[in-house]
Amino acid sequence: MDNKKKITLLIIGIFVLALLVALYFVIRSQTNPYVKEPIAQQSLSLEKGAISVGSTVIEASDGVLYTISKTVMLNQVEDFVRYADSKLQQTERVEGSYYEWMDGNNYVTYDLEDNTLMFGIENGVAWNEASLTEYSFNQFVKEHFEKDWKYTLSVTRKIAEGDIVYYANRKVGDFNIEMVSDNESTDYLEIKNGRITYGKFLLTELVAEEKKVPLIDSADLEKYINVNGYPKEIHPEFGSLRTTILAEIDYKSDEFENVIKTLSNCKSSLSTIVYLYKSLNQGNLTPVYKLDLQCELTYKDTVYTIPAIGYVNAIDPQYISTVE
Question: What confidence score (pLDDT) does residue 101 get?
Fold first, then answer.
């Protein structure tokens, strides 16, 4: 075989090899269920407090990534205002992202920073139920905002005789959305004598992405969780300190702030997957691990144990980027 034929065959071989390699990566990209580029972890800040995963068992799995829509529901909110109390008048406090309607003690507010509706109507909104369920929340948003959202009822609290608050979490797929305030709920309704008197609803639309994100197991989480810059937050619950530390110092004081800084030795006992929502400008809604923690505080050389909630990044660190 002469050199010319050898060169021709070599060129053809290289071309075929390059074609096969390209085809391999095309097929791989099409069959890979995960996001192509690291996504911004915007659900969490970067706290430095240490957490021990301990014996908490978390199995690796896949999570769904959601995009937070910028769609707002001002028109539907205005319709609800007219329905709740025709005497409500819009106040001067409109600043482009905050709307308020008032009449005496009755009010409706619509805050576009977190896209939540809140209302209080003394005589209540008619509701033909003595108690509320997940279905009640679904029916409320279906009736007033034309949404078929699903909910999990989380906490029920009796405020006064015949006056009960029901806290709920909107669901995405099989998992709850949580917010840091209001018992980690996204929504609540207060009912009295078959009429709804107070409420809060998260009105944000969420869009599921086609690609998934891989979640890490407890062994990998233990390795990463205390690395500097790993996304996590610790939210202590101070109720157990009412008869001890808080009986001596104001929880708003600098002295109590110094006590909070002694928070340490946080150990997990249980983990669940949730989606942590903060604002309409969040961008991505990502799965996070919610850890039930027991932490320690020190005051006047005495160590106090308090419960806390830890929200930590659940996504394989290779697939996230953090926002300072």
Answer: 95
